[in-house]
Write a structure and sequence with these properties.
The chain is α/β, with parallel strands linked by helices and 255 residues long. It is 40% helix and 18% strand. It is built from eleven helices and eleven strands. It has helices spanning 3-16, 44-52, 88-91, 105-114, 129-145, 159-168, 184-189, 199-204, 207-215, 227-235, 246-254; strands spanning 26-29, 57-64, 70-72, 77-78, 81-82, 119-123, 152-156, 175-177, 194-198, 218-222, 240-243. The strands form two sheets. Strands 1-2-6-7-8-9-10-11 form an eight-stranded parallel beta barrel, surrounded by five helices. A two-stranded antiparallel ribbon has the order 4-5. Strand 10, helix 10 (227-235) and strand 11 (240-243) form a beta-alpha-beta unit. The chain is globular and about 50 Å long. 44% of the residues are buried. The structure holds magnesium ion (MG). Magnesium ion (MG) binds at residues 59, 61, 122. Magnesium ion is lined by residues 59, 61, 122.
């Protein structure tokens, strides 16, 4: 997904039309649009719903089972079963809150292929560097298989995962760091596309927004759910806002 490219293209279009105002933040649905009816966090439906309301992108989390199947889930456990130390035959029986079976990444990507929404894939921090490397290899193979390399970006809290992703993704594909413990210049040095930091971190370091932009880095803020926080992000010129309430943010941006 060439987020930066589309931003540049949109800006060029506006300038060409003689309109000059700062680019608005793009709306990213956090764990899909799971507040929608019949949806659940990280469900297939949450992805479909995020696409249907025209979110800029949909974020989701992935884990690797002991036997190498990548599944979509936020927590390290589902219904009390640890994903990383269990085999797929046990994990793939687990249901989400909306009755869906836990999606495999493959099922998720098969659905995404029929939609147009870009994806923000979060690699969760696994128990070992080896598990993360294996997960990344399998993730990238699946994304390639479904022709989604230009529509998928990556985020992670794991320093090892970040470095492995940076050196493994196709050229031009963005990887953003989530932990908030590196200043923009360090993220640039680490070859990140930008920072994807919590609202708490960004409220403490609003100067990082300009620093990032001066360095050619993007700024994504999570998880922004209150209207006053959404407004703060808009007023401070962040590039992407990740939220559990994408429709509310879209309404706010229309005003
Ligand atoms: Mg996530």
């Amino acid at each position: 997904m060439k987020l930066t490219k589309s931003l540049v293209a949109a800006t060029a279009l506006l300038l060409g039309a003689g309109i000059s105002y700062a680019a608005q933040p793009k709306v990213i649905a956090h764990r899909g649009y799971w507040e929608a009816p019949g949806s659940a966090q990280n469900s297939i439906r949450s992805l479909v719903k995020a696409d249907s309301i025209g979110c800029f992108a949909s974020e989701f989390d992935v884990w690797r089972t002991k036997d190498g199947i990548i599944v979509v889930n936020h927590d390290p456990t589902i219904n009390g079963v640890n994903i990383e130390s269990s085999t797929a035959d046990v994990i793939l029986q687990q249901k989400l809150a909306n009755g869906e079976t836990i999606p495999t990444l493959e099922e998720y990507l098969q659905t995404a292929q029929k939609l147009t929404i870009p994806l923000v894939l979060e690699l969760k921090s696994h128990n070992s560097n080896e598990n993360e490397r294996n997960a990344i290899r399998e993730i990238l193979a699946l994304v390639k298989k479904y022709g989604l390399e230009n529509r998928t970006e990556y985020i992670t809290f794991s320093k090892n995962g970040f470095n492995t992703l940076v050196s493994s993704v196709p050229q031009g594909v963005g990887v953003q760091y989530l932990s908030g413990d590196y200043i923009p210049a360090q993220v640039k040095q680490m070859k990140g596309k930008g920072i994807d930091y919590s609202l708490k971190v960004m409220r403490k370091h609003p100067e990082w927004i300009k620093e990032c932009h001066d360095l050619g880095l993007t700024v994504n803020v999570w998880t922004v759910n209150k209207p006053e926080d959404m407004q703060w992000c808009i007023d401070n010129g962040v590039d992407y806002i990740t939220t559990n309430f994408p429709e509310q943010l879209q309404q706010m941006l229309k005003k």
